[in-house]
Each structure stands twice: as C-alpha cells, then as structure tokens.
C-alpha cells in the first residue's frame, strides 16, 4: 500500500510556521484575518497550484484546492490554518498539510479516483470572533445577523477585519457547500491532550466532539484607593472573580460529568493599577461537555453562582454569550472505516471523544464525517512547545490516505 512522505509534510509545516512566527518566544501568532493569516492563505493557494490542485478562496476566507475534474460529489479533507496567540506549528495546520500530502501520494502512485478530492484550509477556527467561521460557512451554519454583530475581545468587528483585507462579509453567505455535492469530510488533528500518549497508542479514532459555550462576563464594582478603603466596605470586582473560580469544581461535581470542562482563560482588571481596588473585571468562561443538556446545566449553574457572588460583594453582573456549539457525533461508517484502516496497518489505537471543538463538527450535519487524532507530546497544545513525533504524523497521515482512497473510489 502507498505511504506518505513525512519529509514533505515536515518541510511544508515549517514553511507555514514562518507566517506569524515570533522569534522571542518561538510561538506562532496567526490569528484570523491578520496580515500573517492572509499571507499564509496566499502561500497555501500557491502551494496547491504548484502541486497540481486547482485553488480558490471563498467568501469566508477558506482556501480550497481541488484534485480531479470529474463532476461528482467531493471527498473533502482538511482543517484550519489560523492559530491562537503564541500557538504551535501543528494545531490545525497538520490536517491541511497532511491532506495535501495524501493527494501528492495519490498523484505520485498514479491511483485512479472516481470522485474528486478537495483539501481545505478553513478560516477563523480558533474563535477570535466567537465561532468557527470557515466551517460554519461551508456547512450553511451562519446567519447574516451574526456576521454583522460578531466582534473580538478588543471590540473589533469581524466585518471590519475582513474589509481590511478586501473581503466583503456578505460573501460569507456564498461559501455554502451543497450537501448533495459532498461525499464525506475527514480531518486529521493533533489530540491536544494527554490520553494517547498515556495509553501508548498511535491513533485516536474519534467518535464524538464536545459542545462548547463561550461567555464574556463583566463584574462591576467600585474602584477605590487601596490604602484608604476598608476591606469590609469595598466593592472589589476581583474578589468576585476569585470566589467564582473557587466554585468551578463544585459546579462540575453537581451539574457535570467526567467529560465536563469550565475554564476562565482571559481576565482583564480595570483600572489595573497596583494601588487601586479593581472596580471592574472582564473575563471569559468556556464550558464543554458531550451532552447538550449537561452544557445547559453547567451554564445555568454558572449564572446562578455569579449572581449570588455579585450580591455578596456588592457588584453588578453582566454577561454576553459569544457562541454556543452543540456536541456532535462522527459517522459510524467513517469511524468504522478509520478503525479498519488503522488495524490494516497494524497501528495501535483507541476510540475516544474529543474535548476540543474542531471544524469537522459542523460537517457532521451535512455529510459522513470522521476525525483522526495523533498524540501530542505531554498533552501540550496552543503553546510554542506543542509537539507531535514525526513517526506519529506519518502513521496518522497514512490512515488518512487509506480512507481518502477508499472514499474516492467506487
């Protein structure tokens, strides 16, 4: 059976990592619709064309390379190429570059296909503006009202960020991929967690993807002098945040499951001066679970606890729900195929859920969908020291290759 060239994957991943690379901390800064992100998209289009794929960029900023001219439903593979601030070189990018390498391997081995293959580098997966714009647009999971109001944590509107790069946000609504012209969607991704490494397994056959909700929360008290304001007379917004942080485990114990997660990932104190009692704190809450009813229970509990804490500390409590992504389950046919292809290559594996959201979760609504994990060293992701061993990348890419060939031939 054919094998991918991991050397070509390595070369392309390091080439892609140049866009937004920070020499000081060795992290990748390629947030969606920044100069680095758009330069990477132009580079990807050129690479697709060089390798014999027909490239295009749709109205949502997705870069798509098509291999095969037959007028039949497409087998699509890929992931995203935007990053979090100070991210690693594998998250998202691996799925795009490995998909391209699978097409090169098919081409080099003169494998005849009955269906075309498209490799996609989606836009805005990391949620700078609160969603997964590229995959939501491709699957028809977007509204004009959301596009007009979506903004990042600095108050920059999505429509303005797109306009800075010559993109009209109305074009997002034209990116929908007709479900009747899509045969399947596959994504290869680093696990971003410690399970595969701990279990000493090479492949994660993913059967479900956690839902995610994201809030921006504001606790408003009163800024005061840190020396003259008595402790029992303060309206200290930070104490409200600290109290809530201590309640997270109790909320999960009472309302969640072993798969539940609640995270405070970003905090801003105002006015943010050492000698001033914080009069306001803005922070994010991200909650996850594989059951949407559990997610609702977690969200309701967060709201109740924050209201109680606000009263205790004489604070006002406000929040805005930035996004709500329901849990999704992969196609049993594709899950079984991934498992069978993994077995046929004698790679070790486990079936597992994904605690992180991925592009493929939206494709589950319109086509047969599968997700393949490879191990993350130390479980690290979204950080400069994110790493996956090349042998694991090679094996995961070979499984992706076998599935793509199977899906694209009668």
Strand content: 15-25%
**CATH architecture label name of the largest domain:** 3-Layer(aba) Sandwich
Number of continuous helical runs: 12
Number of strands: 16
Rounded mean pLDDT is 96
Fourth-tier CATH superfamily name of the largest domain: Zn peptidases
Structural domain count: 2
Order of helices and strands: HHEEEHEHHHEHEEEHEEEEHEEHEHEH
Under CATH, the topology of the largest domain is which? Answer: Aminopeptidase
InterPro entries: Amidase_Cbmase, Bact_exopeptidase_dim_dom, Peptidase_M20
Organism: Kordiimonas pumila
Family: Belongs to the peptidase M20 family.
Pfam families: Peptidase_M20
Protein model, in words:
The chain is α+β, with helices and mostly antiparallel strands. It has two domains: 6-209 and 327-407, Zn peptidases (Aminopeptidase, 3-Layer(aba) Sandwich); 211-325, Alpha-Beta Plaits (2-Layer Sandwich), CATH 3.30.70.360. It is 35% helix and 23% strand. The protein is built from twelve helices and 16 strands. It has helices at 6-17, 35-50, 93-108, 133-138, 144-149, 158-163, 195-199, 237-255, 292-312, 332-344, 360-363, 390-407, and strands spanning 54-57, 63-67, 74-80, 117-122, 182-190, 203-209, 211-220, 224-225, 261-263, 267-270, 276-277, 280-289, 316-325, 328-329, 349-354, 368-374. The strands form three sheets. Strands 1, 2, 3, 4, 5, 6, 14, 15 and 16 form a nine-stranded mixed β-sheet that branches. Strands 7, 9, 10, 12 and 13 form a five-stranded antiparallel β-sheet that branches. Strands 8-11 form a two-stranded antiparallel sheet. Helix 1 (6-17) packs antiparallel against helix 3 (93-108). The longest helix has 21 residues, at 292-312. It is globular. Pfam families: Peptidase_M20. This is Zn-dependent hydrolase. InterPro entries: Amidase_Cbmase, Bact_exopeptidase_dim_dom, Peptidase_M20.
């Amino acid at each position: 059976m054919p094998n991918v060239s991991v050397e070509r994957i390595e070369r392309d991943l390091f080439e892609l990592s140049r866009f937004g690379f920070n020499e000081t901390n060795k992290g990748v800064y390629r947030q969606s619709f920044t100069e680095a992100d758009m330069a990477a998209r132009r580079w990807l289009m050129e690479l697709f064309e060089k390798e014999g794929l027909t490239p295009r960029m749709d109205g949502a900023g997705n870069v798509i390379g098509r291999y095969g001219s037959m007028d039949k439903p497409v087998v699509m593979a890929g992931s995203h190429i935007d990053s979090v601030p100070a991210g690693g070189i594998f998250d998202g990018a691996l799925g795009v570059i490995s998909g391209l390498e699978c097409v090169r391997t098919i081409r080099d081995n003169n494998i005849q296909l009955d269906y075309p293959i498209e490799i996609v580098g989606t836009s805005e997966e990391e949620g700078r503006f609160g969603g997964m714009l590229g995959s939501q647009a491709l699957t028809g999971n977007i509204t004009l009202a959301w596009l007009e109001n979506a903004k990042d944590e600095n108050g920059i509107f999505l429509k303005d960020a797109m306009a800075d790069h010559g993109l009209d946000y109305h074009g997002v609504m034209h990116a929908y991929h007709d479900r009747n012209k899509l045969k399947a969607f596959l994504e290869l991704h680093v696990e971003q967690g410690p399970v595969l490494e701990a279990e000493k397994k090479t492949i994660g056959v993913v059967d479900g993807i956690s839902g995610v909700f994201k809030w921006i929360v504001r606790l408003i008290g009163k800024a005061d002098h840190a020396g003259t304001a008595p402790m029992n007379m303060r309206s200290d917004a930070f104490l409200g945040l600290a109290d809530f942080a201590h309640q997270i485990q109790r909320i999960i114990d009472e309302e969640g499951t072993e798969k539940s997660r609640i995270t405070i990932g970003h905090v801003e104190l105002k006015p943010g001066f050492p000698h001033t009692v914080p009069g306001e704190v803005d922070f994010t809450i991200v909650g996850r679970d594989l059951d949407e009813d559990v997610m609702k229970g977690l969200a309701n509990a967060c709201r109740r606890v924050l209201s109680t804490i606000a009263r205790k500390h004489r604070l006002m409590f406000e929040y805005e729900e930035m996004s709500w992504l329901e849990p999704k389950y992969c196609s049993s046919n594709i899950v079984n195929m991934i498992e069978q292809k993994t077995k046929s290559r004698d790679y070790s594996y486990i079936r597992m859920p994904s605690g992180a959201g991925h592009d493929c979760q939206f494709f589950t609504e319109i086509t047969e969908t599968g997700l393949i994990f490879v191990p993350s060293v130390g479980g690290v992701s979204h950080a400069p020291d994110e790493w996956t061993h090349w042998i694991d990348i090679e094996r995961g890419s070979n499984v992706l290759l076998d599935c793509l060939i199977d899906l694209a031939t009668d």
